[in-house]
Amino acid sequence: MCSRAESSVFWSGMTPAIIEMWERCSSCNRMAPSQPSAPPTPPVQPAYPFQYLVSDYFHYLCWNYLVAVDSYSNWCIVEEAAGDSSGLITALRRIFVTYGISDELISDGGPEFQSHKTKTFLHDWGVNHRTSS
Fold first, then answer.
1. Tens digit of pLDDT for each residue in 19-71?
2. Which domain holds residue 23?
3. Based on the structure, what is the number of domains in the chain?
4. Is the pLDDT score of 1 beyond 60?
5. 56 & 15 share domain
6. Which end of the chain is less congested by CB atoms within 10 angstroms, N or C?
7. What is the separation of C-alpha 19 from the centre of its chain, rounded to a whole number of angstroms?
8. What's the CATH number where 81 sits?
């Protein structure tokens, strides 16, 4: 509620005024979610290098890339790749062959990561895929 108002107008003491109005609004309280959001869970700390690999597949200046970061050491790897799930699989295979097969691959769940080919590849290599959002 506050962020929407802040994008349109501003006055000194705006946020406390909006919160106070919201708390006194009976229909706002009636329509509010019954369960508060769960607190974020802290990330699991890896026990060894390349156990958890955080990745993103992106396009930049006419080229496609896979960026992967080891959660243990924060080692960053960038692989050039073709623009589809086959390119993603090729880049992941190069990373796994070079650094070892990860237990878990964490991504934003983009279309290349959700394709049947990628899911089959990760399953065959024994890698659990988890989406970050």
1. 888 788 877 777 766 666 778 778 789 999 999 999 999 988 989 999 999 99
2. 2-31
3. 2
4. no
5. no
6. C
7. 30
8. 3.30.420.10
| 45 within a domain of the structure (yes/no) | no
Give the pair of three-digit tokens for residue 42. 């802290």
- CA atoms within 13 Å, Cβ hemisphere of 37: 3
The model carries a pTM of 0.68
Tell me how far apart the alpha carbons of residues 54 and 14 are, in angstroms, rounded to a whole number.
39
Q: pLDDT tens for residues 63-114?
A: 999 999 999 999 999 999 988 889 999 999 999 999 999 999 999 988 899 9
The neighbouring-strand residues paired with 79 are 66
Maximum Cα interatomic distance, the chain, rounded to a whole number of Å: 60
- 3-state secondary structure at position 14: helix
Cα 50 to its chain centre, rounded Å, is: 17
Specify the pairing of strand 128-131 against strand 104-107.
Answer: parallel
Based on the domain organization, do 66 and 15 belong to the same domain? no
